[in-house]
Amino acid sequence: MFKIMIIEDDEKIRKIVADTLTKWRYEVVEVMEFDQ
Question: pTM for the full model?
């Protein structure tokens, strides 16, 4: 299994990419807060 971090401020794009990669058996981490 591969791991990937998604850094995208558009929630819709981030979710589509995360869902697709999860189907391809990637372990996905999404960054949702950019101010910290």
Answer: 0.81
